[in-house]
Amino acid sequence: MPKIVRFYETGGPEVLKIEELPLVEPGAGEVRLKVEAIGINRAEVMFRQGQYLENPVLPSRLGYEAAGVVDALGPGTTGITIGDRVSTIPSFSIGTYGVYGESAVVPAYAVVRYPGNLTPVEGTAIWMQYLTAFGALIEFGHVQKGVTVLITAASSSVGLAAIQITKSVGATAIAITRGADKKPFLLAAGADHVIVSDEQDLAESVMAITAGKGADVAFDPVAGALLGELAGAAAPGATIFEYGALSPATTTYPLFAALAKGLTVRGYTLFEIVKNPERLARGKQFICNGLESGALKPVIDRTFPLESIVAAHSYMESNRQKGKIVVVV
Hints:
Blueprint: E1 3-7, E2 16-20, E3 30-40, H1 42-49, E4 65-73, E5 85-88, E6 103-107, E7 111-113, H2 120-123, H3 127-140, E8 148-151, H4 157-168, E9 172-177, H5 183-188, E10 193-196, H6 202-209, E11 215-220, H7 226-233, E12 234-242, H8 255-261, E13 264-267, H9 271-274, H10 277-293, E14 300-305, H11 309-318, E15 324-328
Parallel strand pairs: 8-9, 8-11, 9-10, 11-12, 12-13, 14-15
Antiparallel strand pairs: 1-2, 3-4, 3-6, 3-15, 4-5, 5-7
Helix pairs in contact: 3-4, 3-10, 6-7
């Protein structure tokens, strides 16, 4: 019987349990994967804590991203073949179709053959990070050459994806990080400029970099007091994409900056892309092209064995990572 990760109560990483459960047969329109690697995401931490968009039905599975080999097909499933090496797009219920474990059943529409030049560890680090960044920056933000983009939480997997996507279209990437220890890493990762927010005034720094204009787009999962700072650093007519709420502080709308500059503060989630077939197709094509050309390449911070799933979640919560955390099965 495969080892599967579940939890029986919400809480810290220690609530995650590894159990041996019967092998599940895929239903209509589903496929089963022999999982090789699992990508760890902030969404799964929040789901485990009971603070996500979806509430867990206990005992619950969890997990959005896995890479593996298709080993069974449900009735009526087409376009996928047993033996295909695929990874999953986060486009399903995290509890119903959780992928943490040695085996996972997911909807057939959520699996994609990943480029052959990637390992399973890299294959599981594609869709959450690149589609999230693609949607805000390319699909809705129309980032292109001449545009300046502010990227907060820049050393996260999504932040690094945003840097790569920004650079791939010829725009300027300004990475924002709290600690100076991450500055050399972010410059090496492709950021044109790095602002250490614990040491530098964000608005003053951005204005100095942009000759007084400000940033055209901001891409932020933090919110809280940072939203006001981003508004201060924004150019007239800029858009600020808020795709998370990592800050525990109340998020106050920056009314006067928004009025003075004509700013757009836009809530955004990955589901705006994955639930729309046309947008998803554009995103998949953009990302696959970038992966094949080398313009996009997943940055892996650290791997853990499945037996250390609690340690992997603890490490995610430490915020020390520089890139993707992956569990190898």
